[in-house]
Design a protein that fits this description.
Length: 564
C-alpha cells in the first residue's frame, strides 16, 4: 500500500518518550539551540552592531535597527505579547504598542529550551515572542522585495530565530528575510481538558508572526503578498501543519520544507533499542491526557477547571522546564481549529493550501541521529544490525535485511542509517510531494536532495571512527546561513554550491520557480519526468547539480509495499 493511500493508522497514546531516549533528544535539540557563532553578541545575536542605525515605523511603534552598509537588521521585535502569567497557554495576542523608538539592535531572549543534562539554570525566557528582520538597503524605488520567513528546527524543544544570519539570502536574492521565535516544549505544546480544544501554541505563534509580516513587510521594503515560508526539521514540520491549517489561509504564498514532511515518522527503535515509534503530531486527547498527568505530578489536580489552570499558571518557569516535562510535550496536537485533522491525513485527502512547494532531504539524513546514539547503542556487527531491524520492523525485518544487506555498506552502522534515512525521510518526503501533485496537478512542486558527502560536520557532534556523517540531517544549513559553526569552513567549490542554493531558494521565493538564468535546470516533480529523474541533486563540483531518480536510489518502491 502506498504511503499516500494507506488506511488511517490508529493513534497510540504516548505520555512522553522513555527515559532511555532523553539524552539523545537533549543533544538533538541543543545542537540547534547552541548554534551561535563565537562572534555573537552577549544577547545571542550573531550580528555586530554598527554605529549608524535606521528607524522604521511598525504597526506598534518605531524601531531602530542597525545599518551594515548594504543591508540592515532589526532584531528582537515583539510580534505578540509575552505569553506569561494569565497568558501562559493561551493563543498569542498582539503586543502593546510603545512610545518613542524601540531599540532593535540585539536579538530578544530565546524561548525556554530543553535543558542541558546537568545544567543548573533554565536556558531562555517565556518572554520570547520576537522576530528579526534583515533587509537590503536602500529600498528599491517602485518595487517590493519577496519576503522569506524562516522557522527554525530543534525537535520543538530548542533553537531560536536569532541564531541565523540571513544577509546572504537577503543580498543575493534581493529579499527581506524574517526569522521567528516560537514557544517550545511544555510552553508551546501543552494540553489539558481545562484548556479545551486549544491550538498548539507554538504553531499559533508562528501564524501570529506571519500576520505581523503581512501587516509590516512593506515597511521594510517587502511585498506582503509574496511571502515564502521556509524551515528545516521541526521548522519544516510546522510548515506542513500550516499547509493543512484552515487558520493559515492567505498567510503565505510559497513554502520550502527542508528535511521534514507531513508523512515523516520514525519506526520503533530508530533512536535506540526499545525507544518508541515517533510521529510528529499527536491527537488532542492524547496531549490532554498527558497534561492531566503532568498536572497531577505538579500538585495541580484538585479543584475545578479554573483552579487547576490557575495552579498550573502559577508554577515557576524552572519547575515546568524540566527535561521530562519538556520532552513530554513536543508534538503539536491535532483536533482543534488550527489543525482539525492530522496533517498526513489532510494531505492524503487533498486538504491543503494550493501554493508552490519545494521539499527535499539530505542524502544521509539519519547518520546524524545514529551518530549521536552510537556511544550508547553501538552497532558493531551484523548481529547488532539484525537486532535493530527486528526491533524496528518485526516480521518484516528479513525483507528489510535482504533489501539492505550489511555487506553492501561499509559498516553495519551505516547500513542501519541508510535504512532509516530511506524509510523515515527520503521516501516519506517524495510520497508527500506525490500526494500534493495528485490533488493539485496544475501546481509546480520541486524536490531536491542535498548530497555533499564532504559537507562540514556541525560543531558539537561526536566523532565516531569509521562512521562519516556525509550529508546528514541539518548539514545543508551552513550553505544557506552564515551562522552555523562547523568543524571546518566551506571550501571554494562548496561556496559555489552555496551560492547556487541561495540563488535557487530566493528565485523560488520571488517567482514560485527555483530556476535561475545560467543555473542547471531544476525540473518539476511529476509525470513530465517519466524516468523519475526529477529530484535535483545538490552537490559541489562540475556536474554536481543535476536531476536524479531519488525514489529508485532510496528503495522507495520497497518501502511503499511495507505497512507503516
Amino acid at each position: 500500500m502506498s504511503p499516500t493511500t494507506r488506511a488511517p493508522r490508529p493513534r497510540r497514546r504516548r505520555h512522553g518518550l522513555r527515559a532511555l531516549l532523553l539524552p539523545l533528544l537533549c543533544a538533538l535539540a541543543l545542537l540547534t539551540a547552541t548554534a551561535v557563532p563565537a562572534t555573537a553578541t552577549p544577547s545571542g545575536s550573531p550580528y555586530t552592531a554598527a554605529r549608524n542605525g535606521t528607524v522604521v515605523r511598525t504597526d506598534h511603534g518605531l524601531v531602530r535597527g542597525v545599518s551594515h552598509g548594504s543591508y540592515a537588521t532589526f532584531l528582537g521585535i515583539p510580534y505578540a505579547a509575552p505569553p506569561t502569567g494569565p497568558l501562559r497557554w493561551r493563543a498569542p495576542v498582539p503586543p502593546v504598542g510603545w512610545r518613542g523608538v524601540r531599540d532593535a539592535t540585539t536579538a530578544g531572549q530565546r524561548c525556554v529550551q530543553m535543558p542541558t543534562p546537568g545544567a543548573g539554570a533554565v536556558l531562555g525566557s517565556e518572554d520570547c515572542l520576537h522576530l528579526n528582520v534583515t533587509t537590503p538597503t536602500p529600498k528599491t524605488a517602485g518595487s517590493k522585495r519577496p519576503v522569506l520567513v524562516w522557522m527554525h528546527g530543534g525537535a520543538f524543544l530548542g533553537g531560536s530565530g536569532g541564531d541565523y544570519r540571513t544577509e546572504r539570502l537577503a543580498l543575493r536574492g534581493d529579499a527581506v528575510v524574517v526569522t521567528v521565535n516560537y514557544r517550545l516544549g511544555i510552553f508551546g505544546y501543552f494540553g489539558h481538558p481545562g484548556l479545551g480544544s486549544a491550538p498548539p501554541f507554538g504553531l499559533a505563534d508562528q501564524q501570529a508572526a506571519l500576520r505581523w509580516v503581512r501587516s509590516n513587510a512593506e515597511r521594510f521594503g517587502g511585498d506582503p503578498a509574496n511571502v515564502t515560508l521556509f524551515g528545516e526539521s521541526a521548522g519544516a514540520l510546522g510548515i506542513c501543519a500550516h499547509l493543512t491549517s484552515p487558520t493559515a489561509v492567505g498567510l503565505f504564498q510559497r513554502a520550502v520544507l527542508q528535511s521534514g514532511s507531513c508523512l515523516m515518522s520514525f519506526p520503533r527503535g530508530a533512536l535506540g533499542p526499545g525507544t518508541p515509534a515517533y510521529e510528529p503530531f499527536a491527537s488532542q486527547s492524547d496531549v490532554q491526557a498527558a497534561g492531566t498527568e503532568a498536572a497531577r505530578r505538579l500538585g495541580c489536580e484538585k479543584g475545578g477547571r479554573d483552579e487547576v489552570l490557575a495552579c498550573l499558571r502559577e508554577q515557576s518557569t524552572d519547575r515546568l522546564a524540566t527535561a521530562e516535562l519538556m520532552q513530554s510535550f513536543n508534538r503539536p496536537a491535532f483536533g482543534n481549529a488550527l489543525l482539525p485533522v492530522a496533517p498526513d491525513q489532510a494531505l492524503a485527502s487533498g486538504r491543503f493550501h494550493r501554493v508552490p512547494v519545494v521539499l527535499g532531504t539530505n542524502h544521509d539524513e539519519m547518520r546524524m541521529f545514529v551518530g549521536l546514539s552510537l556511544a550508547a547503542f553501538p552497532i558493531r556487527t551484523e548481529s547488532d544490525y539484525r537486532a535493530r531491524l527486528v526491533d524496528a520492523f518485526g516480521a518484516a525485518a528479513p525483507a528489510v535485511e535482504a533489501e539492505y544487506p550489511a555487506a553492501h555498506h561499509p559498516t553495519p552502522a551505516l547500513a542501519w542509517a541508510a535504512v532509516l534515512t530511506d524509510r523515515s525521510l527520503t521516501c516519506t518526503t517524495l510520497a508527500s510531494a506525490r500526494a500534493m501533485a495528485d490533488h493539485a496537478p496544475g501546481l509546480a512542486f520541486y524536490g531536491y536532495e542535498f548530497n555533499d558527502p564532504d559537507a562540514p560536520v556541525l560543531a558539537g557532534l561526536p566523532a565516531n571512527p569509521g562512521f562519516p556523517y556525509g550529508a546528514a540531517h541539518g548539514f545543508e544549513m551552513p550553505y544557506l546561513f552564515a551562522s552555523f559553526p562547523t568543524e571546518k569552513p566551506l571550501s571554494e567549490v562548496q561556496r559555489a554550491l552555496s551560492d547556487r542554493m541561495v540563488g535557487y531558494w530566493t528565485h523560488f521565493a520571488r517567482t514560485g520557480d527555483p530556476n535561475t538564468p545560467g543555473a542547471p535546470t531544476w525540473p518539476a516533480l511529476g509525470p513530465s519526468s517519466p524516468d523519475g529523474r526529477s529530484v535535483q541533486s545538490l552537490a559541489p563540483g562540475p556536474g554536481g547539480i543535476h536531476p536524479v531518480d531519488a525514489a529508485s536510489a532510496h528503495h522507495c518502491s520497497f518501502w511503499a509495499g511495507l505497512p507503516r
